[in-house]
Amino acid sequence: MSASNDLAAVRQIKRAAEAHLAGKANTVAVGVGYKISNGVVTNELAVMVSVRRKLPLAELTEAQAVPRSVDGVRTDVVETGEIVAFQDPKAKMRPARPGVSIGHFQITAGTFGCLVRKGGELFILSNNHVLANSNNAQVGDPVWQPGRADGGTSADQIGALAEFVPIAFDGSTPAPGNGCSPLSSLLSAFAPKPKVQNVPGDNKVDCALARPTTPDLVNADILNIGVPAGTAAATLGTALQKSGRNTGYTTGTVTQIDVRVNVNDGGPTATFSGQLMAGAMSQGGDSGSAVLDMQKRVVALLYAGSATTTIMNPIQYVVDALGIEVVTQ
Question: Whole domain around residue 294: which residue ranges?
């Protein structure tokens, strides 16, 4: 049996080399596993070297590069990002990170989705039903972190509701403006309409913005994922990841696109169209989570689901409705 097929031998070789491999600046872990080739797990044992970021060999010095093999056993370099101790998404956190509990002071709790910019100003992105109490809120209302269901009180205010896109519930008439004050609504009548709006029977987004009390109270680094690398469009089969208040870090896959769905919001129902569907990667309380692809690009905003299903707004709808850009640093 060759050394590369003998688990005990590979472990011994790894242990002899791990101090050298772990000492490289980009390395976060060294172990034994099956080598991955073109995205497929093979049956060849390898010394696995986990790195913060996988860089082209041309950008590395000889001292920085991981050798192709160690004592006859091939290595495999895997990008994992920084390895961090998991934090409780229901706890108070300052600075608060996307993926943790948040909510309008009158709701239970949802999830801080991600940080965005609008007009050069920093905002917290989540759902209307998380930050604006399903249209039943006023701009300026307190937003708590953690949310009330997780022990949040007025002492935990992290910001205030800044803007929301009204949800057009079935049988209702479209709400004026964009969740703004009467004066703002009047002014908005003379302003260009957003590219995406909600109307009864054809909602596109469940989204809102909160303005942090001070910018230092928030951080762009999504819990257990990292800082987003921008935005992208998801399609059938896109691999997904998210960090949410209730289920923490989970993964999934886009199973349906262009979905028309009836969403029960605790009584009233709203019909959404053009949505994304994934499997069971969320539960109640995860509403507002930013959903990313495996390249850490935000592709959707999670807002609904069932025991078997997750429903999301495509991120471009949210970007167009609010006029925002995702913070990437």
Answer: 239-315
